Amino acid sequence: MEDGWLYVASASSFLFLLFLFKLQRSNKRNSPPSPPSLPIIGHLLLINEPVHRTLQSLSNRYGPVLSLSFGSRAVVVISSPSVAEECFTRNDIVLANRPCLLCAKIMFYGGMTIGFAPYGPQWRNLRRLTALKILSPHGLACSLTGRLEEVRLLVKSLYEVATAAAGGGGFTRVEMRSRLEEMSFNIIMRMISGKRCFGATVDAGDTEVTRRLVELIKETFELSGMDPVDFLPMLRRVVDFKGRERRMVDVAKRSDVILQGMIDELRSRRKRSDSGREVESKTMIDSMLLEGYSDDVIKGQILSMLSAGTDTSAVTMEWAMSLLLNHPDVMKKAQAELDDVVGRDRLANEADIHKLPCLQNIINEVLRLFPPAPLLAPHESTEDCMIGGFNVPRGTMILVNAWAIQRDPKVWDDPTSFIPKRYEGLEDDHAYRLLPFGMGRRSCPGAGLANRMVSLALAALIQCFEWEPIGEEPVDLSEGTGITMPKREPLEALCKVRGCMIANVLTQL
């Protein structure tokens, strides 16, 4: 027994001396400030859910450039707009890489997708396809009809429910989350494969397959992000944390079957329609088949589009409606702007968006308070560099806490309040203070699409209906769990048709 305690004491002393040695070396290297850490696991025990709030608390104590050790991985957390600007300008190429994460290897086809691929030829090819073709201004103009139709169908379904339940003259209770999710999914799927997946006109078999895919994407979101094995790889052979790796493999297999079916169906459709002749590319899958991409690369791109483009937009719209319900004066102002600019005889279209500053200010403020990615996708330094005056070695993971930057009282007046008018006259002055889609070459290429989707849907909902919260209490703004920071409780609200929109708009849908 005494020998056992002697071994424990010796090991503890060795680990303590190792910690002091690492701390001394860290100070000599001019590393960013760091909390005390434990041997081997580093600061992992300090990281609790929600991670963006935990990191904000640590940054408030240790500074806007914070050094952490996640097991064997060195991490630097950025919570300052000026340092974020430095990362995405002077150090943009150095930080253009992505860390290799277990979720990317298993569920995103070896990490060779536009979101997870390391900086190099594969990523540049996918970026060219995505940013310069599918999501370019021309590409988005080609898919405009689908977006307008899906917004029209959303409005039509609400009009029918409100008319049937209240005789068209009163408020009726509606649940919004599922409606917004289905609209977002239909828009993205029409761009990917040319098919709607939800709605009365969709085949029951297609709807069932889509529902399974939606559930798989939700599981993918739940399992995505950083895993303990990413930082303590030696544990992968010893323990599977809560069965996560087995679940990742299962989700990957099930989603692969559905995604392969989508490709095979479109490939078969092309063969039947062109009779051996080359046909015009109308969808993302068409474009990628025409350019000779492998099925695995196409499936990875489909999964990336669905993961990044559906839940994020739906979550943003749900937060927007929740905030507007709690601020009816802002809702009335946006409604008056729409009546003045668009009128009451048609729905707003994308050509109107830049003429609606009040609506854009609302969306900016929603994205500031509830960014769909509170922690931007992690970057990794490919060589030694300086960030915020500190030395950052090669291979360091860089986390930009957008949520903390966008709620920093040193950066924003009254940062926790919903004040859309704060953007009046700012123009681009808020570029690195407001970064929900990231910045630099690894920023989200879907920012333009997201703005169009959210703007069109939000404009139509404000134009066509009156809204009130259920009961006298404000809408609950508690955050749920997940990397897109959803509302904890799905939004339900009272909806009433605006009489002035019935004759020329709603009855014509």
Automatic annotation (TrEMBL):
CDD domains: CYP81 (cd20653). It is a single-pass membrane protein. The keyword Transmembrane helix applies. GO terms for cellular component: membrane. The keyword Protein transport does not apply. Keywords: Heme, Iron, Membrane, Metal-binding, Monooxygenase, Oxidoreductase, Transmembrane, Transmembrane helix. The chain crosses the membrane at residues 6-23. This is Cytochrome P450. It comes from Eucalyptus globulus. The lineage of its organism: Eukaryota, Viridiplantae, Streptophyta, Embryophyta, Tracheophyta.
